[in-house]
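Appendix B.2, paired examples.
Example (i):
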Amino acid sequence: MSTAGRSLELFFIDGRPDGMLTAEVFNWTGHVLRLPRTQLKQALQRPETKYTGVYVLIGERDGTPLAYIGESEDLGERLRSHAAKKDWWDTAILITSAANNLHKAHVKYLEARLVEIAREVGTMPLDNGNTPPRSSLSEAATSNMESFLETLQMVLPAIRVDMFLNKATSSDDADQTRAAYPTFELSVTRHNIHARSVLKNGEMIVLAGSVAQSQWIGKSRETNLRSRVFSELLSTGVIRIEGEKCVFEKDYAFQSTSAAAELITGRSTSGPTSWKLESDGRTYAEWEADELAKDDT
């Protein structure tokens, strides 16, 4: 079943991609403001900082990524407080509604759910002490907040906030699902590495049971991105270490064939030429060329 597309509008307030921006979706009541701490004074002049809403602080402490999730009936005042008391954050995400019609019970529910989701995903440590209890809402209001969250979880990754995005995938009918998509394999015999993946919805999903290097063995320097992703997979239980190798315990979606290949081989690797179609041995690049040629006929 295909999913209907959504239109996301990003507005770069000062014309800089790393500056303040707003994010809104057509026919969604929510409004998201992302601001760097260096622009806190300018952000506090905006009307949405005086709204009731939920906020996420993101930064690092002692070299480790860290986030904090909270709620307030006056987001600006709460940010002023955190600026004085928390020195580790450098980005804030403010989540409100365009008409400022979220009330205290709404945002306490959203805060609790976001903490639950972030801890379930497990890629970003939280500075929150405990998971706050969900506020008591009517059945209709709870449904509305869950719908609000569903769209929010589409918006946040688009503005480079992926701590609520679970890339570990599972399905009760996994075998049937995989059979409907092209399956690739990557093998390095001398290192006893063998991985399988499927291409689904534009993502390269490495399948549970795949065996990869547990350390970087390449001549070039390991990238920070590869190191971070490996650490996240290990800490969230997607992979487990077995001697010099690691094994995928769960399916995991990568955004590119090369990112998946580099994590598996432990060195710089070209995904399009390393992954081979399981059915006939064509490389991903060859399979892709053949698929594109079909569209020209």
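Example (ii):
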Amino acid sequence: MIVGVPKEIKADEYRVSMTPAGVRELVTRGHKVLLEDSAGAGSGLTNQNYLEQGAAIVSRQEIFAAAEMIVKVKEPQPQEYGLFREGQILYTYLHLAPSPELAQALLDQNVVGIAYETVQCADRSLPLLIPMSEVAGRMAVHEGAKYLERENGGRGILLGGVPGVDPGHVVIIGGGIVGANAAKMAIGTGAQVTLLDINLPRLRHLDDIHGSQLKTLMSNQFNLLESLRTADLVIGAVLIPGAKAPRLITRAMLSQMQKGAVVIDVGIDQGGVFETSHPTTHSDPIFEVDGVIHYCVANMPGALARTSTFALTNATLPYALTLAEKGYRKALREDPALRAGLNVCLGTVTHAEVAKALGKKFTDAEKFC
């Protein structure tokens, strides 16, 4: 199979979808890898690194014209919509639920769209989302601490406090991979940390790990509002695979927060959990609503490109190899986890939550196996 690796063109995106090691794995199995010039530069990887492993360096147009499978990191941008061909496999993060224009473009082009974020194992884990959720959860605490500085518009709070002065209060909404990693980092700073979730077994698990260092609460409107009133930093970390993120924090609730507090909406790729959120970029990451600083960067791990590239490709490469070796029909038929990643195929929506969010007819992915 001919596999194409274009350079990411989303604003402030520095990751690349394949490392030289991935190229070597594909080439030694008889496949051909086409890489766009300088695709790996943002992650500290040179063209020579790829050439030594057997990649061919070509133009973006040549990649889309020749490749049977396009492997990316982020969803296609508008200027890329017209480059796809019918039956071409697109393997990347898609986040289609809040993006009807992108979804329609892929449907119109009859693309086979496999989304990293909905590949799901039998135990309900999301193996291609986990590594970036780990990065984003840990990064959320770093970014929150930065924007709590008075110079950046925040309350002037040091999360860990100092002797004789209260530490900051970090509130984490959601106890999944993002939330658990955010809690780990926040506890490490010495902050007071509260985590809310609707899953009681998950709260028990996190309590067993962190004990008295983490306050766990059942997530409901009362507990959310009480936590928000004393929060210095709030991290939104809720995900429903394929669906829009639930809007858990209304503007009325936000208005109860302290002025200069910071919210980090990690779920902004799926629409965000704060009613007041809208996507931002690393170049212009924050805005203010009712005196509360909002950080809503839609590709947070892109700022830590080298770490993120290697973490992501460790997880995505095995599935890329399967798709290249077997073709998408056989690969989907034999692997239910990968089949769950199929979001659009040849003009139809093949993921139930995506179809519901977009108001489109759902077609079972098994039809295309």
